[in-house]
Amino acid sequence: MPAKLSRTSRNPYGITNAAPRQTMGNSGVPDPTWARIIALEYINNNDLTALTANGSAAMATAAGVGGSATLTTGAAANTLGAEATAQAVFQVPTVANNLGRMFFKWQGQIDSLLGTLQVGFVASAASAPQGIFIQSTVTTGALSLIVRNGTGTSTFPFPTGLALVAATQVELGIEVDTLGNVFAYFNPTTGAEPITGTVPSTPIGTVANGPVVAAYNQLNGSLQGLNLPTGALFASQGAIPTTAVARVLTVNFFVAVQEVTPN
């Protein structure tokens, strides 16, 4: 009889984050039987229909090699303008729901540090939502991984030096494993050295593509008490103007993935 098909991922390093020299893992055409995937490359107008606007945000495709899009927020200060997946189809893996790992990856830039970037998994469109997301700090561009539920917030700053620069493209990634541990990535294609954040002068293989922030829910079999959201989540991208001036994100791609069964 034929060999049993493997249930393991065709993207062994994670579709969005950690494969050396290949931003999208070893991805050919992802198999829908093992993962829910939103992958927007903004090559044509149809790519925009998978997202819904919040806070007066508007998106449009932009000319350029490979395709890109612009997301323009409203001009109300301290009000999130975002585009999120139309359905909340992502959820932190637990024994009860039997879901696999979650991945998120975003590549783009913000026009000014007078806006706060917010990208990742969220329960709702809000300036301080429940979810697992990366958010920047106004004026400095400093980044943090934020994990929030209805009872508390855990904030994990990125290493010094790994920050947004106005009008400069950056690539940000999130991974949630089957234990609820959360990892954040900064420019994983080129590679910041894991945890230390030191950009190596010479490529050092897979090490140069590792996470720069780790937030452990379980460590060595011990529960750490991370404030993980329990409900269904949207994948979202957006910004919060800190003055009454609209902010503009230029987005190269937006990818969110959840494996259906643990690998």
In short:
It is built from no helices and 17 strands. With 263 residues, the chain is mainly β.
Structure commentary:
This protein is mainly beta and 263 residues long. It has one domain (37-259): Jelly Rolls. It is 0% helix and 37% strand. It is built from no helices and 17 strands. It has strands at 35-40, 51-54, 58-62, 68-72, 81-85, 102-110, 115-122, 131-136, 143-148, 153-157, 170-176, 182-186, 213-215, 218-219, 222-223, 234-241, 248-259. The chain is globular, with a radius of gyration of 18 Å.
Which spans have pLDDT < 50 for at least 5 consecutive residues?
1-29, 191-208
Largest sheet: 8 strands, antiparallel
Choose one word for the global shape.
Answer: globular
User: What is the end-to-end distance?
Assistant: 24 Å
The count of DSSP E runs of length 2 or more, i.e. the number of strands, is 17
> What pattern of helices and strands is seen along the backbone?
EEEEEEEEEEEEEEEEE
Q: What fold name stands as the CATH topology?
A: Jelly Rolls
Give the quaternary arrangement of the chains. single chain
Mean pLDDT: 80
How many helices?
Answer: 0
Helix percentage? under 10%
Strand content range: 35-45%
Instruction: Supply the CATH class.
Output: Mainly Beta
CATH architectural grouping: Sandwich
Based on CA atoms alone, the radius of gyration comes out at 18 Å
SSE-based structural type: mainly beta
Tally of distinct domains? 1
